[in-house]
């Protein structure tokens, strides 16, 4: 059902938009980078002076909740509709201080590996290629390498790192990588209050929007830490959460080097693609005129709606509803082929085991 809708929507978008569509490089600003071989942008980026215009919180610290912006973001949400599961205090070593106090009904991942509508597996034979914690000073090397094989990935960005490395963020956005949110300061999500968590997601979203012109809709929790309180906040903000699909990092030189060394081995046996692509979600940003490539053949680009606004809007909304039906339950393809929730969890672990063996290292950051 979803696949069919998605194909129809994608075809409709391109058929109606073809005469006035700018899908590629022509006229697009070149992605800034130190590398001379960076391909032209597939996604046109907003102008950027080199200095961020937005006012952002201190880097690597829990985002504040008392700024006018955060107050405005909170007003847009109905917090009384969020489950009242308790905030979980964590030790300095990164574990819940009192695991037995975590209610089973909160569907906490850290203690019980409980999942609830989290995307955890790609279809059989497909490797959801994801990198967490960027962009960092080492990311340019990773992006160069991905460019050499025209490989796209889902990049779960830390807001603090985005504002520290704006040129690298813009390069990845323009290249058509799937950009997603990984909080502002990388604390365990369940250790944050509702207000802190909203601030962490929205400031990261704001930085990506300022630099790249689009608004992400996918989120991965640091350390995998999530429960139904956090999920409900994400859903209220228009996000889908992704679990430990496959996990690599662009945080350090050695993880980037390992990723570069191992990716060809993964590519030899798996089809590698961003999570949005393996879910056939051609529109993983709030701006539905942006299309990212999918397994089903959607091509990366931007639909210029200036002459086709009614048809573009119609196809965008049918795709959006198809996308949400996927997010709410069809993570049924798995390496074991079972659609049952419990088997999805098991197969996810199996995928991780394969990932760990294949890559020779796993860091649960
Ligand atoms: C907020 O959510 C509560 C609980 O679901 C509901 O009763 C209330 O009507 C909602 N308020 C608004 C303004 O939507
Ligand atoms: C969209 O199309 C209009 C009319 O053809 C053109 O003037 C405008 O520059 C285009 N915008 C982009 C971003 O391609
Ligand atoms: C894409 O849609 C956004 C609104 O979602 C709009 O601001 C932007 O101008 C559109 N871009 C083009 C090229 O039509
Ligand atoms: C079409 O583009 C205009 C500005 O270029 C924007 O305001 C509008 O929201 C866009 N509509 C859609 C459906 O993307
Ligand atoms: Zn992380």
From TrEMBL:
<feature type="signal peptide">
    <location>
        <begin position="1"/>
        <end position="17"/>
    </location>
</feature>
<dbReference type="InterPro" id="IPR011330">
    <property type="entry name" value="Glyco_hydro/deAcase_b/a-brl"/>
</dbReference>
<keyword id="KW-0479">Metal-binding</keyword>
<protein>
    <submittedName>
        <fullName>Chitin deacetylase</fullName>
    </submittedName>
</protein>
<dbReference type="InterPro" id="IPR050248">
    <property type="entry name" value="Polysacc_deacetylase_ArnD"/>
</dbReference>
<dbReference type="InterPro" id="IPR002509">
    <property type="entry name" value="NODB_dom"/>
</dbReference>
<keyword id="KW-0732">Signal</keyword>
<dbReference type="Pfam" id="PF01522">
    <property type="entry name" value="Polysacc_deac_1"/>
</dbReference>
<keyword id="KW-0378">Hydrolase</keyword>
<feature type="domain" description="NodB homology">
    <location>
        <begin position="125"/>
        <end position="365"/>
    </location>
</feature>
